[in-house]
Amino acid sequence: MSLQSFEALSSPPFSLHIQQEIEVTRKAVGRLLERWSDELALSSNLQVTIYDYYPYLFIKAFPSLTLADVRPLNLASRLFASSIFLYDKMMDCTATVDLSTSILSTQARQLEAYYLLHQIFPPKTAFWERFHDYVVEYAKACVYEYRFASGDQPWQEYSEAVALQIAVGKNGISKATIAGLAELAQDDSLLKPLIEAINHFNIACQMSDDLLDWKEDLYSGIPSLLLSRILHERPAQGNKEEMTLWKDILAREIYYDGHARYIVELALESLERADRITTNLLGSEWHTITAKLRHRCQALLQDIERIVDANLHRVRSQPKFVLTLPSAQSPWQQIIWDGLRFIVQQWRFGFGEARHIMHLTQEEEFSAAQEYHYGDVFQRALIADALCDADELLHGQLQQVIGYEASYLVSCRLTSGIGGWSYFSSVPELAPDADDLGQVMQVLLRAGRKAEVAEYCETPLAVLLQDNVRADGSFETWIVPATGRTPQQERQVEFNQSKWGTGPDNEVMANLLYALMLYDQQRFTQTIWDGMMYLESQQQADGSWVSRWYYGLYYGTYVCLRLFAVAQPDSPTIERALNFLRSHQRDDGGWGLKDESDPLSTALALLGLASAQECSGDTGDLNRAERALVYLQHSQEDDNSWSSIQFIRPRINEPYGSRTITSTYVVKAAMAWNRLIENVSVNRSDIVSKTKQ
Q: Distance between CA atoms of 119 and 97, rounded to whole angstroms?
C-alpha cells in the first residue's frame, strides 16, 4: 500500500527549527502511548518517516501559520497515520503481532488523535465535516478492495479507474492534514489544488508499490492494477505449487509484455501532475519528497529496460540445446533426470529465478546510480559445477551448456583493480571476494579451461594470499590490497568495516582451499595445510562448522568435509563432522534448518556424508541416504523442482533462496549417492564373482 511508501521516505533536509519540531512530536507520541500497556503501544519506528512531519510539507501554502500553530496538528496526524498503517497491515494479513493487540493499539492511537483534534478544532467547524468525509472515503475504499481480495468480485473488473479510486480512497485521511491547516489559517483557497496534488502523489506511491510488491500481493490474493492487467480471476490461495508456477509465468509477462513499464510510467505521470499543481505553492521539503519517489520510479524503469535488454540479448546469443535423457534406472537417477529437466529449462530462461536482487540506495551511502542490483555469478557457478557432475553421467551431453556458462562467468569478471569476481558487480563498494573466486575457479578447471584460471585468477589470488592472510593460517573473505589502494578500494575497506564485516569465514576458506587443491595442490601445499589447521580449530564441539554467509550448519559442514576428505582423509575432524550429520537426521529422513526438514538442508547433509564415504567405515550411511531419498521424493514439486529455502544470508536487506539452487543441490546430492550405490553394487558383484571362482 502507498502508506508503505510513505514510511519508506526518509526526512528531507529541513531547517533546524522544523527538525526540532519533529523531535518534539516523536517525544510527545511516546509520552501519550506510555499511558497504555507496552503491548498496546507496540515498538515505535526509530527512523524518521514522513509521518513525523507531514503537515510541515504544506506550511508554505499557509503563510499565516507558525510552527507552534502546527505542532498539535502534527502530533495528531502522526498518531492517526500510524493507526491507519496498523489497520493496513492487518487487512493485508501482515501484522507482526496478534490481531487483538493490533486492533486495540490502533484504537489507542486513534483515541489520542481524536482527543487532540477536539482540542484544536471546535465541533461545528468545517474541518469535522471534511474529516468525516475522508474517513468514510477510506472505509468504502477498504471494503471495495476487500471484495476483490476475497474473490467476491472478479479481478477482470479491477480496472484502472477502480485501482485509482481505491488508491485515492485508502489514503483519503491524509487529506485531513490539508483540511486542518486550512481551518487553522481560516483560508480554504488552496484546499482543492493541494488535495488534488496529494491524490496524484498517492497514486504514484501505489503504482510503485504494486510493482515492488507484486509477488507478495499474488501470494496474499491482494488485487492491484498490475496483477489485474494479466490475471482476470483471483488466483486460488493455499496451493503452493500453483502459486509458484503463477509467479514464474507472471514474471515474464510483467516485464516482457510491457506491464511493468506501464505501471511505472503511470506513477511518473501522476508525480508530474502533482508537481505541476504545487510548483509555486509548496517549498523544497515537498518537492524533495516527490523527487525521491521520482528517482525510485526512474531507477525501476532503467532496471526494467536493462534486464529485458540483457535477457533478449541472451536469448539471441544462447545456443540451441535439447536435453535427451534415457529411462531412469533407479530412484536416485529419476531424481537426477527430473532435476536436470528443471535446471535446463531455467537455463533457457537465463536463470532469472536464481538471481539475487538487492535494494541498496544512495541514502545508505551507496554510490551507484541504480538502486536495484542483480547478482548471479556465484549462483551460476554453483549450477555449472553440478552440471559438470551430470555431464560425466551423460557422457558429455552437457558440454555445450557448461561451455556457455563458463564463458558467461568469465565475462562477469571485474575489469578494474585486481580483477576477480564480486557478488554484485554493479556495487562499487563491494570488493571481489574469495568465495566467488573459489567457485568460479572450480567451474573453469572442471570445464577444461585452466588457461583462463591462470589468466584471470592469478592476480586476485596473489593479493588474497599475500595481503589478506593472517598468522593463524586464515584469510579474509574480501580481496583488497594492503597498500597502494585506489580510492575505490579504500571505500571498499570502509564498507567492509561498517557494513559487510571483516575477518575469515569458515565456509569461504573451505571453498577457496578446495579450488586450490584442484588447481595446483603441490604449489599451494602450505596455504592449504595452514588453512586446514585453522578450520580444524574452528570445528564446533558437535562436529559442525558455523557459516557466516549461509543459513544453518549444513553448507559450512559440507564444504569443510569435502576439503578434508580430499586433502587429509585421516583427519579426526571428518568422523566428528559425519557424526554431527548422522545425529541430526529427522524421522522423515530429511534434515532441516528449523523444526521441519527441508530439501536444501537434506541435500547438503547428503553431500557431506557422500564426500567422506571413503574415509568412513559406517555402512549405516547407505540406509540414511535411502531414507533421505524417500523424503526428497515426497518433497518434490509438480514442475520437477524443489522449493526455495533460505540459503545465503546477507549482512543487510533480504535473505536469498531459490528453487533453482535447491534443485541444483538435490541433483548434485542424488548424483553423488547414485554413484556410491553403483560402486557398492559393482564391488559386491566382484566379490560374488571371485567367491564362485
A: 32
Which of 120-134, 256-270, 305-319, 596-610 is the least confident region?
A: 305-319
- Number of neighbouring beta carbons within 10 Å of residue 239: 12
Contact (Cβ atoms closer than 8 angstroms) between residue 180 and residue 149? no
Q: Which of 273, 268, 276 is nearest to 295 (CA)?
A: 268
H helical segments located in 151-283? 160-170, 175-185, 191-212, 214-220, 225-228, 240-256, 259-278
| Chain centroid, CA 388 distance in Å | 28
pLDDT over threshold 60, residue 44: no
Cell of 312: 533478449
Nearest to 57 by CA among 24, 15, 101: 15
Indicate the residue type of 503: G
207 near 179, Cβ under 8 Å?
no
Could you give the CA distance from residue 329 to residue 336 in angstroms, rounded to a whole number? 11
3-state secondary structure of 356: strand
pLDDT at 5 over 60: no
| Rounded Cα gap, residues 137 and 82, in angstroms | 18
By C-alpha distance, which of 670, 669, 651 is closest to 498? Answer: 651
Q: How far apart are CA 369 and CA 322, in angstroms?
A: 40
**Side-chain half-sphere exposure of 534, counting CA atoms within 13 A:** 23
Using the structure block, give the residue that is written with the C-alpha cell 483519503. 172
pLDDT in tens, 169-200: 988 788 999 999 999 999 999 999 999 999 99
∠ Cα 609 603 589 (to 5°): 80
The pLDDT, as a whole number, for residue 13 is: 58
Q: Tell how far CA 447 is from the center of its chain.
A: 30
Give pLDDT tens digits for 465-475. Answer: 999 999 999 99
Query: Where does residue 221 fall: left (phi above 0), alpha (psi -120 to 50 degrees), or beta otherwise?
Result: left
3-state secondary structure of 646: strand
pTM of the model as a whole: 0.72
